[in-house]
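Late entry, written up from scratch paper. The run itself happened at the end of the previous shift, but nothing got recorded in the book at the time, so transcribing now.
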Amino acid sequence: MAANRVLSLRGMQDRDVGRFGGEAASLGKLLRMEAMVPSSFSTRAEALDECLASSDLHAPVAEIAASLDFEDFAAVDEEQRRHSREARQCRQSKVSERRHSRTMPEQVTPPGARR
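Output as recorded:
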């Protein structure tokens, strides 16, 4: 159920560390202390695993992650940017394909006009 996979940081409690991670729980604690933290939410790690499995992306993502040197943050950041650009281009291409594949009627009748 989606409600179990996503939780507002404002609703985050210390007991949620195991499900949502320490950073999310810490931000939730700061919010409860009325610190200036942007309102946000956290997703469970299992939600990412489910998404990757249902979209056949687990193997490609695992391959990319295995190729990264996490000691070199600049290289990891650049690789992330590269993949984000590629994903954005792919989405734009698919939107463009859908837009151009639509067929237009032979004759378009203006709204309110009689045929």
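The chain has two domains: 1-56, 68-99.
(Scratch paper discarded after transcription.)
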